[in-house]
Amino acid sequence: MEVNLQINMFEDYIRLTATVEPLFPGNDLLITELGERGFDTFEETSNGVVAFAPKSIYSDSLITDIQNIKINGVNFSFNIDTLAGENWNATWEANFEPVVVADNCIIRAPFHARQGNIEFDLIIEPQQSFGTGHHQTTRLIARKLLTMELVGTSVMDMGTGTGVLAILAVKRGATVVEGVDIELNAVENAHHNARLNEIESINWEQGDDSNIDGKSFDVLIANINRNVLLSAMPRYSRAISQGGSLLLSGFFTADEPVLRESAEKYGFVFEDKAQEEDWLMLHFKKLT
To answer: What percent of the chain has pLDDT over 90?
Structure first.
């Protein structure tokens, strides 16, 4: 997954880069341990985890505490360096390039010029949220949405981040679209991005999978880590109408068996999948 940025402008940060073996469930368990020690921003990589924390928490005792973390069956090594305070938005602008999702879809920042007559031209300004389109999982789901019949459908985007997938759903004809994220700054950013795309119809909410209780959708998107997907599967099942679609991403190819087993347990039938590098997207249909 990409970094879910919560970094403040100009504040010094420490960055912990960890190699984890095995990745599953090692990454999730290590993130939990680091979160209890003051780290608040994480990126899962193909080798392990990168974690960030304000430099103010740094001390020799913190290093010793991390060295003493014992997780049954998990081995990890790490190093720590410092990121000097800077204007993070300026850094983002200097490095952000438009993302070509498909021949008819591009994700760009407000300061990028429109490139030709692209059918689905998505304007996204991250402002500390996940989902610029640079990550494989965002692109995998976006490409799937481009192939689906969405006209007149209802869509829920769980873990919406920048709102890019919900925005694409509206542009593809979905008439009822909602986006939920646990982070308030993500919800505010998603609302901002919808306005950049001249969309006012999406309902944005701060929360988690409990927000979908009592609701029904034709399509539910969840680009979240494996453990969250597994725990939320019963709710996803109740919230998708018969014949509706569940699109899952945010995990590695090695997670496919356990996710398919869980989905099938709750009434889903596997439809298809797509892969980019080690990342996977799974598409299920709700039959019962």
So the answer is: 64
